[in-house]
Write a structure and sequence with these properties.
Blueprint lengths: L15 E4 L2 E4 L16 H17 L8 E8 L5 H11 L6 E6 L7 E8 L5
Parallel strand pairs: 3-4
Antiparallel strand pairs: 1-2, 2-5, 3-5
Length: about 120
């Protein structure tokens, strides 16, 4: 299963894809379906990004608790403390493995892609 129309991006790709019991997401950013940026600071943008990830994962009957690997791109590495504050709210107990890198993000402060696990739909 691919999700080609969910949270449309600017390119030719799917928002998510299942391979066996693994779900891979494309990088999600704090934008709505009309491509408007949601939030002006790292905490608000991180919350919006994880809401978008929740929507992608829901298409595969998965949730944030099913995430096993997170890759985070930050426009400013000085935003790591603000990102961590929100990240801890979404993952208070089951902490996924994580990588954080500095990246050019074209107008947003954060982009996140994940690998999650879930049983396949029948």
């Amino acid at each position: 299963m691919n999700t080609q129309d969910l949270l449309p991006g600017g390119g030719h790709y799917s928002a998510g894809r299942r391979v066996g019991n693994l779900i891979f997401t494309a990088g999600q950013v704090p934008r709505d379906a009309d491509r408007n940026i949601l939030g002006e600071n790292i905490t608000d943008q991180t919350k919006a990004t994880f809401k978008n990830l929740e929507a992608v994962l829901a298409q595969f009957d998965a949730e944030l608790k099913d995430i096993i690997k997170v890759t985070v791109h930050l426009e400013n590495l000085s935003d790591v403390p603000g990102f961590n504050e929100v990240f801890a709210q979404f993952f208070p107990k089951n902490k996924p493995v994580r990588t954080v890198v500095g990246s050019r993000l074209n107008g947003v402060l954060v982009e996140v892609d994940v690998i999650a696990t879930s049983a396949e739909k029948e």
